[in-house]
Write a structure and sequence with these properties.
The protein is an alpha/beta fold and about 300 residues long. The chain contains ten helices and eight strands. Strands 1, 2, 3, 4, 5, 6, 7 and 8 form an eight-stranded mixed sheet that branches. It is globular and about 60 Å long.
Amino acid sequence: MAHVNDFDWAALADLLELEGETQGSYVRGAIGELAALPALTPRRILDIGSGPGVAACTFAAAFPQAEVVAVDGTAELLGRAEQRADRLGVRLRTRQAEFPGQLAELGSADLIWSGQAVHHVGDQQGALDQLAALLEPGGVLAVVEGGLPARTLPRDLGFGRPGLQERLDAAQAERFGRMRAELPGAVRLAEDWPAMLRAAGLTEAGSRTFLVELPAPLSDGPRRWVRGSLRRQREMLARASEWSKDLDWPERWITEDLATLDRLLDPADPAGVDRRTDLFLLTAKTLHYARRAVA
């Protein structure tokens, strides 16, 4: 039986890049929030778990005088980041390193960003402790975790059982819990991120949530991201019996939802995501940040 932690990040490169581009407004909002913090003029920025470098390139454009380093464990994703930086004409360095095992090798920074990567580490508090240790005095650690799941479809599609995305959210939450439990050295704790940042020895902890809203009808790029996201969710739902014992859904529900997803993913179907005029994107991302005190 496959474990839910068997991620092939290189195979997800296209989807990760599309997601970063589609939801990039929250990164720009977060940069504005961080740039407004008193006495923060970063000379070196680390993006931990950078993936294909969408956020890292946004930081490089916003802070052209800083050395921005995209850090990821997957070489193929870092290659994407380098190509993206070349296309955009921004200055970006890349560094292949495992998170959190090789953090100590990265050197210090004035600003450390980690977007939706810490939850892939078994000991989340331990990971924050290590990230905080890399900060220069007065430096800021910013992590994106939590927020709200994406909504892209109306509640009633006109076919299938209404409420498809709510059921997919429930399946994803079950899968996420299993993923967390299976991580090496998994530690369960209350995910109060400002409190966790303070426990890492940082001060001035705060949070800010950014809404990402793209109304219908979606343009081509966001539409392709919706297609890729639904394809992954279909694969997850098809394997639900392998990893979930707690959903307590009748088998016919899963069968019906798989048939609905097949219609949505059929390029020839007028009700599919490639042709629907009611496709939209609404989600929220939460930034948590704190500062290392000046000695």
